[in-house]
Amino acid sequence: MKIRQGFVSNSSSSSFVVIGALFDSCEVDELCEKIRKEHELDEYCDNYDTIEHIDIENNWIGEDLVLGECLYYFSDGAEESDVKPIDMLKIAKEVEDKFQKLGIDKQVRVVCGSYRDG
After folding, report:
1. What's 54's DSSP letter?
2. How far apart are alpha carbons 31 and 65 in whole angstroms?
3. Closest-CA residue to 64 (of 112, 29, 107, 17)
4. What's the whole-model pTM score?
5. Residues 69 and 7: beta-carbon distance below 8 Å
6. How many CA atoms lie within 13 A of 9 on its CB side?
7. Segments making up each domain of the chain, as ranges
8. More confident residue, 6 or 23
9. In which element (H, E) is residue 29 found?
10. CB 59: neighbour CB atoms within 10 A?
11. Which of 14, 65, 80, 90 could be 75's S-S partner, Cβ–Cβ 3.0 to 4.6 Å?
């Protein structure tokens, strides 16, 4: 009989690079409340559904939220992505303009990280 001595998991990991901003759970609540008022959404609309009403890419990491333009995303098992030049200044300006229209007062930065799915 063989005994496995290492960690075994069916979960996968994902990595990303975004030009935008990271919002913690408290900031997400405030942002979503503002969006619900502006879009006249039901007060019981949850944060996940509320964020879908704005025109900007979003990625949830637990209760935190990354808003901006995704430059790179990789998940276990995905095929390699294409390598391409990126005009980061242009993208940053576009994200800043979207933030300004939404009344978001956060500095646009490069946000990168990884997380486990499951």
Report:
1. S
2. 11
3. 29
4. 0.74
5. no
6. 8
7. 13-117
8. 23
9. helix 25-38
10. 19
11. 14
